[in-house]
Amino acid sequence: MIVVLIARLMIDEYIGIQEYWNQSISLFHKKYGGTMYLDELLVTRRASSPREEIEIFEALRESNLQDEYDQALYDYALRRFQDELKKI
Fold first, then answer.
1. Conformation bin of residue 64: beta by default, left when phi > 0, alpha when psi is -120 to 50
2. Does the pLDDT value for residue 66 go beyond 90?
């Protein structure tokens, strides 16, 4: 199953990573052109406070929930994203 998912990612021309939002937007514009606007770099996720967001991430980390398929897919996407950044 994971092989199929990674194969699908391999045919995509662009992969962005949320944790690297600004670099993802920059990579997109390097690949496809167009003007990059400051608004694109703004974080627009809704959270009532930065502290609440940190608490959510900490709770998820402490719960030790792991999905081997999600992790393998993320690892591939991150490696590919980092390789693409090196090319620009």
1. left
2. no
